[in-house]
FAD/NAD(P)-binding domain-containing protein
Amino acid sequence: MAVVGGGNAALEAVVDLLHYATHVYLLVRSGELKGDAITQQEIKNSPNTTVLMNTKVAEITGDKFVRGLTCINSATGEEKKLDLSGVFIEIGSVPNAELVKELVSVNEMGEIITDARTGMTSKKGIWAAGDVADGLYKQNNIAAGDAVKAILSIYAYLVKKEK
């Protein structure tokens, strides 16, 4: 397997894949990893990972299924072919919190800071869920669960307010 990216999304994908893949390549476009230090260390300590810095994907090969990947080291120009059966593009995303960034607190990555139990933000009466919120994992099923928590919390808030 290969994961493309150097931030938290990519590092978490590598850790998740280590349970299923015999080997995971992490291809990082820049010369540094940008994810959290603990996850970086976990990956560096794993004998089943290879981190390729300054590396760009040139080609993904295969027909119905991925069979390999060709990458180029941008510092040396060296081309490398990797035999693998899957590629995960984890280059991250920018949360779309522009609309509310003056209303609620956001973290250094631009995510809306929420209470993990309720989804409430720093502003009373405003909740957030999904990839725009500061939840640890960015997955659809987790975002849906966080949205349900927020909706139930909104309902409780409105019922209490009516009394």
